[in-house]
Amino acid sequence: MDLSSLLDIVDSTIRLSTPLIFAALAGLYSERSGIFDISLEGKMLIAAFASASAAAVWGSVVLGLCVGILASVAFSLIHGVASITYRGNQIVSGVAINFIAAGLTIILGQSWFGQGGRTPSLFGGGRFTAVDLPFAEAVRDVPVLGPIYSGVLSGQTPLVYVAFLMVPLTWWVLYRTRFGLRLRAVGENPAAVDTAGISVTFLRYRAVIICGVLTGFAGAYLSTGQAAGFTRDMTAGKGYIALAALIFANWKPVPVMFACLLFGFLDAVSIRVQGVELPLVGQVSVQFVQALPYILTVVLLAGFVGKATPPKAGGVPYVKER
Amino acid sequence: MSRPYAKLPAWIDYGLIPLINLVVAFLVAGLVVLLVGESPLEAAALMLRGAFGYAEGFGFTLYYATNFIFTGLAVAVAFHGGLFNIGGEGQAYVGGLGVAAVALSLGAILPWWLNLPLAIALSFAFGALWAFVPAYLQAKRGSHIVITTIMFNFIAASLMVYLLVGVLKPAGSMAPETRTFDAGGQLPKLKGLFELFGFNLGGAPLNVSIFVALVAAVFVYVLIWRTRLGYEIRTLGFSPRAARYAGMSETRLIVVTMMISGGLAGMMALNAIMGDQYRLAIDFPQGAGFVGIAVALMGRGHPAGIVPAAILFGMLYQGGAELAFDMPAISRDMIVIIQGLVILFAGALENMFRPGIGAAYQRVRFRTEEPAGANVGEAR
């Protein structure tokens, strides 16, 4: 394998990890506050649809991003009302949101654009275009480092950089701010937070809204950054992979990035391993590589390798003592 | 499921509240129909006519309902044990292997009525096996069953694609599916039975597995409410600590409950594969495993509620298909929205109307007798 095909894999790993990073960090805020969220998939889907629709109609990708975020925040709030205010089952609520998003995107897409659930192809200002970092052209001929800089680091869409910047930002918010401390506390022991005179409800709602904003980014990236328009069921399980990455990373921001890169890498190579012979293993099946993120997560959850420790109060509605 | 609010009489709890939840879900669905510029009332009428208006449509309705009875029962059994089996889809998919194993190997040798019990046993076994690993991991290693069953859905999908494009595909064929089963691997349709009453089912794939589904519903009722195991399962669901204190083995109960649940989901393959398609094809459950969640929630976990809820969803599936002909703006995906709304209102938001209804009920009752304390409900 030569350098250029290696860089090719690294490049697509980064592209494929980006939506996972957004979605997994979204889940991190929500789950660290004690609200389990299996509706990352649905929120990404609705955001992808909303931003592609808005971008197609108004021709502005920034407007598209905003509309996508609004849509997924709206869905987040449904989840919040169900699981915070009405103390419903968070898993059930998440399942419901996934279904509503799956159906709604197709029905509305068909009725608005009449292309079988697709949105019109985006072009020009309707898409996020590649950003060239300074000197990308100049250093292209420098051996090894040149192609890495100009081929991989430079020339990504802006949201890719936002995603990777979101990781240190999340770390900082979580571990270095008052909000982050309270957020972590409310996921571990809401009663203690309540005793300190801080509203559990308000904290959790804020966490859920942040989750909506970040899934909005994830969805917008899928339909206006990676692809040029929305296609039916375009998240294709990425929300669940992000959830797996979140668990795999033990609900910590920096490991989340590495888990997403790992799963993105598996996604990137799964297309390329068709028919490749590996020593010892023999022929690798595409299906096995595709199932690998899920298998790895199950193995990790089983506690044979490492130990997954979810936030203690996760999934439990908070009832103020009477 | 926690019930922090006052206990209400059964007719409110099992009749009125599900009905209100359902009505609200349909009202919101109606708004979506309005949004795409069609008339919700007209859509509802078309849907009802498509599902019940003629015998063939009715046959399709019951065919879909059969799938949902199996998967609804599967989710309900797990619910009673306090477990959320979201993996019905994967278990049904893998259950198809059991059906295919019987139909492919014995289809040419034995008649269908001998193959049916074998196929029931094997589909149950395969579905149960697929639920075993998540169950064991939950019981022994404390990994969250919701996450593991989701993961197992995806693993099942990959596994089945692998098998269907590899081992199971007959030589020389391009389509990723098994060969068509021989006559012994095909369950008889109920066309003849309905003709006795003067109905023409036409091409409806309704077959004898609906009787298997109904027997399974009775079996689940007996299991949960009339056996010792069922008592233990309900105890586990109500309070794992109480179950432990009473000397019940939590591990055994979780594993057994999940395997029964997975087995019931696996049996769904009987209807789809042996009853209709006569071959194992990619993604044959078509979301039935997920519909089971809505069905179980709407039926409140009781077979007497699950069977009508399954018929309702069968009606939505069939009526929705018909609707798509007359109103192209409303495709079958409308059903997915309704399904999600039912899960939302009957499941996640079940506490939304309960306090109001409870208060109204207490006010009415207050005049006749002493109120039994409206807010004494235990906190979780």
TrEMBL record, chain A:
Main subcellular localisation: membrane
Membrane-crossing residue ranges in chain numbering: 67-84, 91-113, 158-175, 240-266
Tree of life domain: Bacteria
Key word Membrane present: yes
InterPro entries documented for this protein: ABC_transp_permease (IPR001851)
PANTHER family: GUANOSINE ABC TRANSPORTER PERMEASE PROTEIN NUPQ, SUGAR ABC TRANSPORTER INTEGRAL MEMBRANE PROTEIN-RELATED
Keywords of the record: Cell membrane, Membrane, Transmembrane, Transmembrane helix
Localization annotation: Cell membrane
Protein name: ABC transporter permease
Membrane topology category: Multi-pass membrane protein
UniProtKB/TrEMBL annotation, chain B:
Superkingdom of this protein's organism: Bacteria
InterPro entries in UniProt: ABC_transp_permease
Membrane-spanning residues: 12-37, 57-80, 92-113, 119-137, 144-165, 204-224, 253-273, 293-317, 329-349
Swiss-Prot/TrEMBL keywords: Cell membrane, Membrane, Transmembrane, Transmembrane helix
Localisation: Cell membrane
Bilayer disposition of the protein: Multi-pass membrane protein
PANTHER family with a match to the protein in the record: ABC TRANSPORTER, PERMEASE PROTEIN (PTHR47089), GUANOSINE ABC TRANSPORTER PERMEASE PROTEIN NUPP (PTHR47089:SF1)
This protein's name: ABC transporter permease
Source organism: Jiella sonneratiae
